Amino acid sequence: MYKSLVYGINNLIPLADGSKVPCINFDNAATTPPFFSVMNRINSFAPYYSSVHRGTGYKSIISSQFYEGARDIVLDFVKGDPEFHTVIFVKNATEAINKLSYRLKDEIKNGIVLSTYMEHHSNDLPWRYKYNMDYVEVDEHGRLSLDHLEYLLKKYNGKVKLLAVTGASNVTGYLNPIHKIARIAHRYGCKILVDGAQLVPHHPVDMKPIDHPEHIDYIVFSAHKMYAPFGTGVLIAPKDTFKNGISDHIGGGTVRLVTSKEVIWDDPPQKEEAGTPNLLGVVALIQSIDTLKRIDMNKVANYERDLTKYTYERIKSIPNIILYDDGDVENKVSIISFNIEGLYHGTVATALSLEGGIAVRNGCFCAQPYIQKLLHISLEEMEKYKKDENLLRPGTVRVSFGLYNDYDEINVLLELLNQIGNNTKYYDLKYRNPPFYLK
Ligand SMILES: Cc1ncc(COP(=O)(O)O)c(C=O)c1O
What we know:
Elements: E1 12-14, E2 20-22, E3 24-25, H1 36-45, H2 58-77, E4 85-90, H3 93-103, H4 105-108, E5 112-116, H5 125-128, E6 132-136, H6 146-155, E7 160-166, H7 178-187, E8 191-195, E9 218-222, E10 233-238, E11 255-258, E12 263-265, H8 279-295, H9 297-315, E13 321-323, E14 335-340, H10 345-356, E15 358-359, E16 361-363, H11 368-374, H12 379-387, E17 396-400, H13 407-422, H14 424-431
Helix pairs in contact: 1-8, 2-8, 9-13, 10-13, 10-14
The structure holds pyridoxal-5'-phosphate.
Pyridoxal-5'-phosphate binds next to helix 3.
């Protein structure tokens, strides 16, 4: 339905037998192709591109106005409050979380940060080396345990200052009930950061008014996962979080006054955005938001859910399939992780690429602790991978849909998986050693 919105759909790519087919991209959780509208907007903005904040020239004023105005458009997309929140443009979600982890030093001090066992490394590692941490467990299907969350909040008795939790898992696609979680966290005086990298591109988001018990305190996301791959990420936080203290990156654009003895910092967000900002990245993000809003995020979520439901109902009967999913498609975004019994995940991914022109991702998706939970691999078992770098690592194959994917493409995937599942020995021999460019 939305195929004509993105670049690259009809690209012909080579298969193992030398023939060429249109590529099928089921790796949207990693990054998405650009919208045509985004590229057009970049081109139409380019003649006006100029320095932000630092010029009196006409183009510089247009550029600065666009850049500053973009913050309210971003806030509106996730229903933030322009009076209360600040929007800080960064490189990606990872940089946004790192920045926040640095800037919450005073607020958290000796308190505790909770992350969860279903996080992307980007919402775990930045917290690990700065704070006392603990992790919320997942249940046997990999869903976040709210009972365990509440248990930890009680156990630490008011000391937990922040819960860093993903809005949707990049491995299983599970949606976390972020508002229910926020309500629980707030009851114990704990704030909540939602990693929106997999949520914002696929689902409507509402941070809710700040006096609502279910409001979201902080949210981050990446434009390159929402059809605007020009190096922009977003951190939304209360202005107060950045009022005091010094940013992790300092320099040009962050100050009101500097003498050889003294620095007076600007207000947020400017004090947090050192150096020349990525204006065209922001232009791309704003156009992507405009296109997504025109389609309507509810429609995006419904369409992608239908694709996922269709796939899930059929993938279940692929011979030798192993699914890591509780089947509750209503409560997930468009991601399915699986393995085929007897085949290394990399072999399946290679076969899909070389026999169907289908791009998927395989491995641990920067969520190694979660994969270890889903595959029931103990810490003791993980020791052997430390000792032998050449051991094939555990992991899964992941398909992730974008709004431009369709049922025909999914049928190609299902047909090929059926062949692979029925002929595992053949595929093992053929693709155990993938070509150099897939290693
Ligand atoms: C859930 C989640 N969080 C964070 C990230 C990091 O995003 P980025 O690489 O854009 O910083 C990703 C990327 O895959 C992700 O899936």
